[in-house]
Amino acid sequence: MELTKEQFIRDFKDQLHRDFIVKINESTDEERFLALAHLIKKYISTPWLERRHDLVEEDVKTAYYFSIEFLPGRMLETNLLNLGILDLVEDAFKDVDVDFSDVVNAEKDMALGNGGLGRLAAAFMDSLATIGAPGFGNGIRYKYGLFKQKIVDGYQIELPDAWLGTDGNVWETKKPHSAVEVKIYGKVYLYPNKEGNFEPFYEDPTILRAVPYDIAQIGFQNGVVNNLRLWDVEIPESEEDKYRTIEDRRKIEDITNILYPDDSSYEGKSLRLIQEYFMVSAGLQTIIKNYLKTGKDLKDIHELVAVHINDTHPALAVPEFMRILMDDYGVVWEDAWNSTVKVMSYTNHTILAEALEKWDCNLFKEILPRIYQIVNEIDSRYVEEVSGKFPGKIIENTRIIRNEKIHMANLSIIGGHSVNGVAKLHTDLLISDVLNDFYQIYPEKFNNKTNGIIVRRWSQISNPLMSDEIDKLIGKEWRSDIHQLKNLEKFITDEKVLNEFYEVKKENKKKLAAYVKETQGIELNPDAIFDVQVKRLHAYKRQLLNLLHIIKLYWDIKDNPDIDMVPRVFIFGAKAAPGYRFAKSVIKLINEVANLVNNDESLQDKLKVVFLPNYNVTLAELIIPASDVSEQISTAGKEASGTSNMKFMMNGAITLATLDGANIEIKDAVGDDNIVIFGMNTDEVYDHYEKHDYNARKLYEENPTINRVVNTFIDGTILNSQSEGQEIYDALIRHNDEYFLLEDFESYVNAQKYINDIYRDKIRWSQMALNNIANSGRFSADDTIRLYAEEIWNIKHN
Ligand code: PLP
User: Which pLDDT tens digit goes with each residue over 279-298?
Assistant: First the structure.
């Protein structure tokens, strides 16, 4: 946008004056942040307002991305960057003597998501606007985001994240005039009407008022502003009399209160089902109303509308779309179904059996009586359609209602035209294994869309030093065309350049070290290897394997204090789902091992372990630029894609990885010499499943190193963790080590030795790092979303 620094300073002073009646030098950082955010909203109000009107007027097909999670983190810098005024604002703040970073830090981290899935949804919002595509988000305005994690005596404590405060979210705008009603519970009877169709009659439903809050999604320097719509619940005025006590009202308000803090596992709570229906129904009602403004026939709605189901949580979009078309607008079943399948598409995010969402029929029927009828009908028609054409077993495995449960993935696949996995390996596994029955029926629906990241956030915003260094070498064009990073390969043998990148990394490590010192009181040596594993805590992600190796190093140094090794700092960040006992025990053990190691002077600072509490996007932006080693060590075949792996490589960390998820594509991008791979591949893992021949106890008994490391959990070496240590021991030995840590242990130890050796060769290490940076452009979410736009939604983009 066109703006001079002088004009900005005038606008900003005016805004502060009007909002808070203060002068700049008297204002707090929070007031400055809020005034700046208000000013940004003012700058974009016209394109934001006109976007939707233009799309309706010009009959442009629009995609709606439905997701129960959006994890944008802070938005101030991204918004300024995308408007093209980040540098100008930073400069202006210097002129008026305000520290810009303090203003940035005044923003709360918007954490309406658990991890990768929610972060991807937020990334796609930025990318859709950036490629100029008509793509809007639809989700829930949780009053409490993902819990805040504190560590007390080594244990995870969860605190509520009341991120909205008393004044709400500065980026949102409430739109009461666009509120709609959503019905749940009650009974539904179908009566034949004059046209011979059935019309539903609702007896005693609970009626909810869904009120939208819109958040602008600003494209990167292209004037486009899309919309993310988050729904909040209210009691409709007409229903006020029914809710006389605070308790009664709370039952309704609870619907949008909390984000379920589970990652990679499914929890069958009725409140969650209501959340899912609430956001889907409100979103679809609005989409259909907007479509009707074009004056077109409803049976052609698929020509202008695409709805994406991000994981199965919004899968009720399928029956709800049918319901609205049929019950509210009188479209006949066949036409409604034809449109529904063409409108809907679905992304699968997991192959873990425990994460596949299914609902008990009785609960479902009670909460969503009309939707249950429709799902039943979809299921019977599906069975009828495929009967005789496919073996009975395949039909049984793929139907929606089975064993008194509604299978949400099956509903999403049958009710849509596209199913995609999120990395090549993941899609291959869906096709060959998890969803193979469906693949036999609908091969044409399957496709891959490897995840991507917002490259601007993970370079320009989070790593300004590296970005300046890149500018010096290849000019600034890479900031708008990320593929130009490839030009960095020219410098791969230039020692001066390599040294400069090494120094940039060191500066970032010092910055992180200062944060660690301030928050944890632990002193870190910036010449040590910063070895980082930050992600949700889950058994399949194998933080425990990392810890086993740390314990091995501990014993190595204890046995031989003169051991020649590069000092190593292991950094963890990870939230565990509050009910996930094993994961919480791993956190406790990491913290107790950290106490053991960090307080043992005989280790001479060769080993440090840091657990940084409350890992979130903001912390990721500090940690990732300071990392030397990126730990991506999940059991092969378990991590659908990963996205932090891409962020680390973009910041010049070397990936230490199994052949899992997008690690494989990172390996293809950087070449075998610039990544460190270890462990079993998927075939080897599957081979164990088939042969049932894995024997963790044997490895434990026969391999003295494994024996000693595992015994450390139960022999009293690690203090204050007797029961957790026993639990971990049992998981590994008595319950046969479900994720094959012990099998991969030796290979992991060797890979870590290799890392130690190459780190000593500063030039070689820096070459690997630069190669990673140069080849990270291919993981841009802008490119990923272009493929969604072209191959799934059929929407236009620039
Ligand atoms: N959590 C947060 C806060 C993130 O920023 C990210 C990705 O950057 C993730 C989780 C996902 O990490 P991973 O891909 O390692 O699972």
Answer: 999 999 999 999 999 999 99
Does the beta carbon of 459 lie inside 6 Å of ligand 1? no
Average confidence (pLDDT) over 116-140: 98
Q: Give DSSP secondary structure letters for 642-653.
A: -SHHHHHHHTTP
Q: Is 535 in the pocket of ligand 1 (CB under 6 A)?
A: yes
For ligand 1, atom 7, name the residue with the nearest CA: 644
Q: What Cα–Cα distance (Å) separates residue 249 from each residue in 3, 209, 234, 254, 718? A: 48, 13, 9, 9, 49
Residue 130 known to be catalytic:
no
3-state secondary structure of 701: helix
The DSSP call for residue 247 is H
Residue 576 has what pLDDT? 98
**Range 689-694 average pLDDT:** 98
Ligand 1 lined by 617 (C-beta under 6 Å): yes
Q: Residue 401 half-sphere exposure, CB side, CA atoms within 13 Å?
A: 18
Nearest to 36 by CA among 130, 109, 106, 127: 106
308 and 275 in contact (C-beta within 8 Å)? no
pLDDT digits 0-9 by tens, 719-729: 999 999 999 99
Which atom, in ligand 1's list, is nearest to the CA of 647?
A: 8
Give residue for tokens 């596994």: 429
Specify burial of residue 57 (Cβ count, 10 A radius: 0-12, 13-18, 19+).
exposed
Active-site hit among 286, 643, 682, 712: 643
Catalytic residue among 141, 143, 647, 786: 647
pLDDT, tens digit, for every residue of 584-635? Answer: 999 999 999 999 999 999 999 999 999 999 999 999 999 999 999 999 999 9
SS3 assignment, position 755: helix
* CATH fit for domain 457-779, picks 3.40.50.2000, 3.40.50.11930, 3.30.230.10, 3.30.950.30: 3.40.50.2000
Cβ atoms of 310 and 121 closer than 8 Å = yes
To the query of whether residue 647 is one of the catalytic residues in this protein, the response is yes
pLDDT at 755 over 90: yes
Query: Does domain 59-74+109-179+212-451 bear CATH number 3.40.50.2000?
Result: yes
Q: Which atom of ligand 1 is nearest to the CA of 632?
A: 15
According to the model, what pLDDT value does residue 165 have? 85
The contacts of residue 92 (CB under 8 Å, 6+ apart) are 5, 8, 9, 12
Residue 490 appears among annotated catalytic residues:
no
pLDDT digit string, tens, across residues 367-415: 999 999 999 999 999 999 999 999 999 999 999 999 999 999 999 999 9
Judge whether 535 counts as a catalytic residue: yes
Q: Among 209, 323, 479, 535, which one carries the catalytic annotation?
A: 535
Between 20-29, 346-355, 721-730, the lowest mean confidence (pLDDT) is in: 346-355
The residue whose CB lies within 8 Å of the most ligand 1 atoms, and thus the one to mutate among 110, 119, 538, 633, is 119
Which residue has a Cα nearest atom 3 of ligand 1?
Answer: 616
Distances (CA, A) of 612 to 132, 173, 349, 709: 38, 34, 27, 24
Closest ligand 1 atom to Cα of 620: 5
Task: Tell me the C-alpha distance between 30 and 17, whole Å.
Answer: 14
pLDDT (tens digit per residue) in 215-243: 999 999 999 999 999 999 999 999 999 99
Who's near 772: CB < 8 A, 6+ residues apart? 649, 650, 652, 653, 654, 655, 670, 674, 675
Question: 675 is written with which tokens?
Answer: 């990544």
Which residues belong to CATH 3.40.50.2000 in the chain? 59-74+109-179+212-451, 457-779
